[in-house]
Description:
Blueprint: H1 3-28, H2 31-37, H3 39-42, H4 76-79, H5 87-95, H6 97-100, H7 114-127
Helix pairs in contact: 2-7, 5-7
Amino acid sequence: MSRVALSALALLALGLSQLVFLGSAQAAGNPEEGRKAFAKCRACHQLDAGKNAVGPSLAGLFGRKAGTAAGFKYSDAMVKSGITWNEETIAKYMADPKGFIPGNKMVFPGIKRETEIADLIAYLKDATK
């Protein structure tokens, strides 16, 4: 391989490594920004265990099967979804609640910015323990 080709390959590898780094940093999210973004959720969701509102309490969210928070009347779609909440499923649901679980009761249209979703997840990982 020529030196020019090797140099181009090295630059490409460097550029890709920076993209991967930035993507993983972005995916980690900022919990402080997530706390601010949670204001959109607070109208319907509480973080304290057993405190259901229009939506279920988010306490113990990570690792919980969808439709199983005590004392909340879920839609059949949510109960039958078979989903367990983790970073990936929460991100998909936040982006498009009706598309991810058709027939669920949540009227919120979703969050379109991936960074805001990542921030919310970073916040919720600690706030829902």
